Amino acid sequence: xxxxxxxxxxxxxxxxxxxxxxxxxxxPRVRAIFRSTPEFAAATRVMAANQGLYNGFLAAxxxxxxxxxVPGAGQPLAHFILACVIVAxxxxxxxVGRRIVYVQAAPAVLALFAVLAGI
Length: 119
Hints:
This protein is mainly alpha-helical. It has six helices and no strands. The longest helix has 29 residues, at about 45-75.
């Protein structure tokens, strides 16, 4: 049960990232979150939308795992997608900024441990 809730939290985080990167990238609030200037946001709009789409795929995989059942038939898919989120979060932390570990990787690690533990 806790595992399913944490998987849903990670999915929600990635839906939020999708919305910010695909549709709200140039808004003042999202620019503040990503610490970017209006000029940078305008120049990277298409790239951010592409990244947002990938985050949407991660969310979709987690949602599908929940629909299939966590715990249950959706667990292997949840394991795989959560591992992908962790790798992406670690890479982002190494290449972009450390706080990505806390926003992306850490929740996925907690969710993966909970799912693996069956709690």
